[in-house]
Amino acid sequence: MGNPFCQQPGANGIYCSAQNQMNTPYSTGTRNCVPIPCPSNQDLSPNCKCTFPYSVNLQVFPSEKIKFNPSEIAILGFLLSNQKRQPPDGFGPYSFKASEYAAFAVIIGASMAGFVAALLIIGACVYAIRERRRVERLMEQSKPFATWYSSKSSGSISVPQLNGPRSFTYDELNYSTNKFSESNCIGCGGFGKVYKGTFDTGQVVAIKRSQPGSVQGGLEFKTEIELLSRVHHRNLVSLVGFCFDQGELILVYEYVPNGSLKQCLTGESGVHLDWKRRLRVALGAAKGLTYLHELVNPPIIHRDIKSNNILLDEQLNAKVADFGLSKPMDKSQKDQEITQVKGTMGYLDPEYFLTQQLTEKSDVYSFGVLLLELLTGKKPIDKGRYIVREVKVTMDKTKDLYDLHGLLDPRIGLGTSLGGFEKFVGLALKCVEDSGVNRPAMSEVVKEIECVMQQAGANLNVDSFTDSSSFDGGSGASQPPCSNDSFFNYSGSSMPSHVEPK
């Protein structure tokens, strides 16, 4: 209608009469076919053929204003793309191709410029915030006790109020150790020497005194005080108090008479650890770590699990110690990159070392190395040989004790039945998987060690044995059955027994 040709005399073509509109929408979209390349002077039609299209420049003008708004352009494009008028025979389908709307180009250009500027401003703000936090961390590390001083003018110390640990004077600790006599020295480490002290009340304590130039410094001292003042569990060493007096950095712990696990494995302490006792030590340490990872809010990653930091009390209960490198991890720090990797070589998670990404699975790796150390009695790195690689290369699952006889500690009781040995080795190797996502959670580790103890005939109903000579396990008949594949089936839906705080 309105075609100039139809206005000529005698024109009576079908194009000059009104056509009935189809009720069914007609789409000009390309049919469901695989696009093919076309010569440069041809275009792919909606029928998926290379053709020479006839282009008509269609301009649509707004009626009462100078430009269309975005919603109107969208409606117009939809109507033209979904035409209801069927083209005459011999003509292919219409193809709608819209060009850029000039009014929008200006708006979009301005918007993009504003967007880029906003991104630059946001980026600068994020960088400034990160730099400020980095500087604050460096300031905190250089002056970890800044908040412990009430004022710069007086220089007086205002130690924060903590639940449990008390603040000792230097004179009190100096007197309790007989002036830090070498006869009372019971150990040493990166922080300094450890002395046995006795107060007038008869209480015996372990006193760790920082030495000038020690590997660990004030930040670790402050971290350990603040962490141990809020965590309480039977398998964590207890902090009795501290001394921040006369320039001294001293920590006071409960006295653990049987020394460290390392001293027991080397024979230095004189405590004999057979297979069942080693299992119980592993279970206690695992429960302590489970508490830190899953029951403390925010969770705490220890970062320095090793045999030297597992202490044994008079009943050979394991207690995790030395929290100087520990780090609380709230939800926002779940995947935070730690700029400085900390830990002990041999126990250090290689994934954490390479990526600087700290998670609780880094502790799991260190614990796996500890389990292998319990089996072999050897240091993680001994004469250039790494215990993890040595076990993996040597083991043969088709042979007795996985053919690890040459690596095992003879004092473990090789002449006796080592119930659950294979499961224990499998657990250790699962903990030292290269990828953290393939390692179990510590609650799963606790569950599996309990299964191993049942197979070994150890009685899980007793929390500890009375001394190093009285424990002989038990039949374990009262324990629930533990299948061979329990570790892989454990869902972690319920916490293992005895990981609650004391």
TrEMBL record:
ATP binds at residue 208. SMART domains: S_TKc (SM00220). GO terms for molecular function: ATP binding; protein serine/threonine kinase activity. PANTHER family: LEUCINE-RICH REPEAT RECEPTOR PROTEIN KINASE HPCA1, RECEPTOR-LIKE PROTEIN 55. This is non-specific serine/threonine protein kinase. Its EC number is 2.7.11.1. InterPro entries: Kinase-like_dom_sf, Prot_kinase_dom, Protein_kinase_ATP_BS, Ser-Thr/Tyr_kinase_cat_dom, Ser/Thr_kinase_AS. Pfam families: PK_Tyr_Ser-Thr (PF07714). The lineage of its organism: Eukaryota, Viridiplantae, Streptophyta, Embryophyta, Tracheophyta. It is a single-pass type I membrane protein. GO terms for cellular component: membrane. It is found in: Membrane. Residues 180-453 form the Protein kinase domain. The chain crosses the membrane at residues 101-129. Keywords: ATP-binding, Glycoprotein, Kinase, Leucine-rich repeat, Membrane, Nucleotide-binding, Receptor, Repeat, Serine/threonine-protein kinase, Signal, Transferase, Transmembrane, Transmembrane helix.
